[in-house]
Amino acid sequence: MYLAAQGDTWGIPGPAFLVLYLTVTIAVMILAAIHRRILFAGDRRVAVDRLGPQQIAYLTGGEHLAVYAALGGLRAAGAIAGGTGKTLYQSGPLPAGVTPLDNAIYNAAGRQIRARELTGDQWVVAAVRQLREGLEAQGLAVTPARLKAARMWAVAGAALVLLGVGRLVDGVQNDKPVGFLVVALAVAAFATIRLLTRKRRATHAADKGLRAVRTQYAYLAPSQAPSYATYGATGAAMGVAPLRHGGALHDGPGLRRRGGDPADPGGRDPLRRRLGQHLLLLQQRQQLQQWQLVRWRGRVRRRRVRRMTAYGVGIGWRPEIAGFVAQLPGLRFAEVVAESVHAHGDLPVGLAELRERGVAVVPHGVKLSLGGAEPVEPARVTHLAAVAERLGAPLVSEHIAYVRAGGVEAGHLLPVPRSREAVDAIVANVRRTRAELSVPIALEPIAALFDWPDDELDEGAFLTEILERTDALLLLDVANVYANARNRGTDPLALLDSVPLERVAYVHVAGGAEHDGIYHDTHTDAVPQPVLDLITELCARRRPPALMLERDGDYPAAAELRGELDAIAAASGYPAVT
């Protein structure tokens, strides 16, 4: 018990005042927090995931993000485009199902307003107000009245601050120690400022739903470089709405630069980067020592051979179309670029969900350089094996090609001469690779724009010898078969009749285009009818366990991708996966 002494400020001992002051301050903070929790609870019965992109954007980032979400959807739909100085203009008609905010922005674009000025346009402001009021009525946005009620606790806090200041002034005048009082006053002032300035847009019920929405649409974040053309206007808007990426839409979704090499999405691999400073002889000695360890590990490891079963029609998984792939109800098979998956850490967004669904995912290597004269690099093989284990893959695949020589990186898959010497080099590299793997490997012959002058074997004999000597499977790319036959002026069916079709693990299907009289296997164009006809011819001879659509850029609308998958299913006789 503290007893007052002569000279105590206000007749209250300093320790007693401090205890009382801090107790009241803490009580005000606790009561304010409880009251705010009640005021901002919201209606948990409303499903946030059923809201539109603009509503989600408002709850996430306020009026600016709601406007950017609407702008992104309109630009993806082709209704609005940006001119010089980021001035907007109407580039097409409004799509169906527009909102009042869409109409306001579209009309503002008709006046050629700049994007940054949209939030100040009176019609846009009115549309945002209408959007906010609708959310408030659903119990998802905090009303101004509830915000005002929550701030009333700042009055109590201000009273405590004034009380503390008064005590501090009297204490200083009476030459009393005020150090602890200053600390207590600082706590009260901080709590009061927080009560006065802390704003809240979404209710707690909305926050809970937004967390689920962010997880659901993580593949649409600009950081994942999604193909907004595939997801359409709604997808473009949802890429902004829950993820606070409004700034990305100043340049328009789908207009940002796409990544080049799917195996190197960061674009960090120059065309002719030096691989190291060591002499080639030293490298080969080190690799030989590593391969001795690899071969020993291969002998002691129990080989878990997973043969391909009939998976039907699949698709190449790419981050840009991860959401589209996730929504294919009948999908049982997919392929991922092996170099785009880390051996450790989190899997790319959407890939883990495919595995949880039971979809077989095959890692497809692009940088082993099996066709090179130099031994394959053990670290690359170890990575491929680790990715296969992590994905629970039934097999892996790679190309019969080389991508580096003499320490120089080509950046492309280059054809090897069909010579006996090349066969020996490829067989040696495939055997080295298989010694590290616990699953089979399928080899893919590439599309070549030229043939080497010292070819000794035709393509059928070349492939057959490699497959037989390595006991590898065949990844048959019918788009490559078509491209090679068209450019060489040969019959593609002749190749189908000359390779061991019983070794086909699965089939690649892709599109291409002709430039200057040469057909290029682009992976960015629609699958042409002759390639679909080749699928029918192949299946008439021996239907492969799986066929997959391969796309690596310029992704079209989702409806077009579904159409290509359906066409592959019809040509092969497998059920549709769409």
Question: What does the model show?
Answer:
With 578 residues, the protein is α/β, with parallel strands linked by helices. Helices cover 46% and strands 11% of the residues. The chain contains 19 helices and 14 strands. The chain has helices at residues 14-39, 53-76, 100-110, 122-137, 144-151, 153-173, 179-197, 204-216, 228-238, 280-300, 322-326, 351-356, 378-391, 420-436, 459-470, 478-488, 492-496, 529-541, 558-572; strands spanning 80-82, 88-90, 312-317, 333-337, 360-364, 396-400, 402-405, 408-414, 441-445, 473-477, 504-509, 513-515, 518-520, 546-549. Strands 5-4-3-14-11-10-9-6 form an 8-stranded parallel sheet. Strands 1-2 form a two-stranded antiparallel sheet. Helix 1 packs antiparallel against helix 5 and helix 6 packs antiparallel against helix 7. The radius of gyration is 33 Å and the shape is elongated. Mean pLDDT is 84; it is low at 246-289 and 293-307.
